[in-house]
Amino acid sequence: MSSSPESATARLARGLTLVIVALGISLAVVIWLLIRQSSRSTLEHLSPQDRQELVEQLIEQSPGLYRWAYFAPRIGYTLVPGKEHQAFGTPVVANELGYRTGSPEKAPGTLRIVFVGDSWTFGMGVERLASYPEQVARLANDHAGIDSPVEAWTLALPGYNTLNELAALWYFFDELEPDIVVLCLSGNDNHSTLSVLPNGSTAGQGLELDFYGDPVQLYYRGRWLDSHRYRERWARNFREIAATEAKLESRGVPLLLFFLARWQPFEAHAHVQSAGLTSPYVVAPRSLTRGRWTNRRWGHGTPEANALYGQMVYQALASASDWQPLSEPHPDVSGTAFFDPPSTEAAQQLDRVFLETTQEFIPTSFVAGDAHEVQAPGPIDLRTGEMGRATSLLVRRPQGARRLVLTIDAIDESRGLYPLELEVHIPAPGGGTRARETIDGAKTFAIEIPDDIEVGQAIDVHLVAGAITSSPSSLAARSLKIRSIVPSS
After folding, report:
1. Residue 414 DSSP symbol
2. Number of structural domains, the chain?
3. Coil/strand/helix, residue 391
4. Is 170 helix (H, G, I), strand (E, B) or coil?
5. φ and ψ at 309, to 5 degrees?
6. Does residue 205 carry a pLDDT above 90?
7. Are residues 300 and 342 in the same domain?
């Protein structure tokens, strides 16, 4: 199928991201290398205007906003403190702590709501005052009927996961003195923390261990995947939320959970129940996080959508306190589900959705050149099967399968790297199974599938090489080629 200039531009942008991840070099050099290394026919089909647009988009999406949180690494990163950038189509001004919000100093008598979240709470693609936390503060000051002025303080950044968010909350807690905490949960909050590059940009698929304990950073291309690691990473998030709930309660600070960005109510119910949470929560309707309610370029809520999210959170806070509710909320908000646990049983429904989604999207085998993107939460070139230091792949367990047979090959251009040690691990609730092999050319070997991975579930396959090197045919560091992973009896 032929590519339009727009789709070619998007493809080149994705290619650039991989180059940045692999090398961590400056933006200008990356663009030059991309043009030299990419398909000439693809580039030649771009008009000068499209090429200029590509460069402008890359600079806007990678403007050097961030700094590594060296003072508390589990936070991951903050904005560069005290700087102003133009990013995501809006001005982004960072305060002295590195967040897009007001001063950390709290005025006497102020009721401060600290909103903790990711890009949806940050307000990607909208002005700061149009973001939903600021909308909540405006509504509270206009309608709550309380004596204290209400202030929104936004502790949120694009790319944060739940572990980053809670680490930031507790690191800054004493300085911010929150009176209420609103934790916003997005559907990809079990992904790994992004890496911060030397130029202040963020990138995924780095080389270090992630904070969830996996040997490689993981970014899932699908939701509701019934794999042990996918589900355990969510369980880890909610255990951390439960611990935060208890700590806040001991300090007399109420917590509200806001499920935003394509959640289903039953999914939120199941997670809340499994963690034993008692805080109230509200689930934004999926219909208000897609279509005309999202910015087409950035994929996040429009100003109009943020106004509705603000009404949802305000109404939930009013229901859990002595605030006056809105007398005439927007029709799309009036039916929003607000939950005060316990709610109805939902775990079985979520289990069914997990299995159905895995059955539909995860094949039983992995074959380089014919693999599905959803099979690769870890970094890998799906066309060739080439991996870097480590990766993670998903295959579905079929009936009768007891082993996985892996075919691994060396990379011809990197013969000096071999023989090379390779460790394969299939994590499972009971600990999983491991295999260690020495690769010095094409090799086929098997690893047992753990008994506690059920038929129909996705199998996590972690692969970690003993070393990496550069390859003359690729900009990215490489170690091995994964030809195939096939189940066997």
Report:
1. G
2. 3
3. strand
4. helix
5. -60, -40
6. no
7. yes
Q: Does any domain span residue 36?
A: yes
Give the pLDDT confidence of 263-276 residue by residue, as tens digits. 999 999 999 999 99
pLDDT tens digits, one per residue of 113-138: 999 999 999 999 999 999 999 999 99
The residues facing 422 across adjacent strands are 437, 465
* pLDDT at 355 > cutoff 70: yes
Q: How far is CA 10 from CA 5, 16, 24, 241, in A?
A: 9, 10, 20, 36
Whole domain around residue 459: which residue ranges?
A: 362-488
**At 16, which helix (H) or strand (E)?**
helix 5-23
Is residue 238 a contact partner of residue 281, using CB atoms and an 8 Å limit? no
How far does Cα 173 stand from its chain's mean position?
24
Residue 66: φ, ψ to 5°: -115, 160
Residues 198, 243: one domain? yes
Q: Is 416 helix (H, G, I), strand (E, B) or coil?
A: helix
Q: Are residues 96 and 220 in the same domain?
A: yes
The whole-angstrom separation of Cα 235 and Cα 274 is: 8
Number of Cβ within 10 Å of residue 403's Cβ equals 15
φ/ψ of residue 14, rounded to 5: -65, -40
Tokens of 97: 């702590």
Are residue 334 and residue 414 in the same domain, yes or no? no
Q: What percent of the chain is predicted at pLDDT more than 90?
A: 70
